[in-house]
């Protein structure tokens, strides 16, 4: 859920019945110290296996132009684009 104008759908029912939690923060006006604390907390969650990054596809760095076209075209991605060397 990124961007001030983003309006992602959030289906409360499945979330509620699975006893899930949602953690997040807004970084718009965060200080460097707040960024550091947030990064440390996120890293702890990743290390503990509580957060997983959803990856749509992995492309070679030589396909960077294609990755930009995908993002700029508004193509619906089911996760991050990862460029590898």
Question: Could you characterize what this model shows?
Answer:
- The structure is a single chain.
- This protein is of the alpha+beta class.
- It has 2 domains: 10-52, no CATH class; 54-85, no CATH class.
- It contains 3 helices and 2 strands; from the N terminus they run ααβαβ.
- The chain has helices at 12-17, 32-47, 64-72, and strands at 55-60, 80-84.
User: SSE order, as H and E?
Assistant: HHEHE
End-to-end C-alpha gap: 28 Å
| Low-pLDDT regions | none
User: What is the overall shape?
Assistant: extended
Work out the strand percent.
5-15%
SS-based class: alpha+beta
Helix content: 25-40%
Number of domains: 2
> What composes the largest sheet?
2 strands, parallel
Rg measurement, Å? 16 Å
Which strand order do you get reading across the main beta sheet? 1-2
Number of strands: 2
Mean of residue pLDDT? 85
Number of helices: 3
Features of this protein?
85 residues, alpha+beta, 2 domains, two-stranded parallel sheet, 3 helices
Give the SSE map:
Layout: H1 12-17, H2 32-47, E1 55-60, H3 64-72, E2 80-84
Parallel strand pairs: 1-2
How would you briefly describe this protein structure?
This protein is α+β, with helices and mostly antiparallel strands and 85 residues long.
């Amino acid at each position: 859920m990124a961007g001030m104008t983003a309006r992602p759908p959030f289906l409360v029912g499945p979330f509620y019945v699975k006893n899930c939690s949602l953690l997040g923060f807004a970084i718009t006006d965060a200080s460097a110290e707040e960024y550091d604390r947030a990064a440390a907390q996120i890293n702890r969650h990743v290390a503990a296996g509580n957060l997983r990054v959803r990856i749509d596809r992995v492309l070679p760095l030589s396909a960077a132009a294609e990755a930009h076209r995908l993002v700029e075209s508004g193509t619906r991605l089911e996760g991050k684009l990862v460029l590898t060397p």
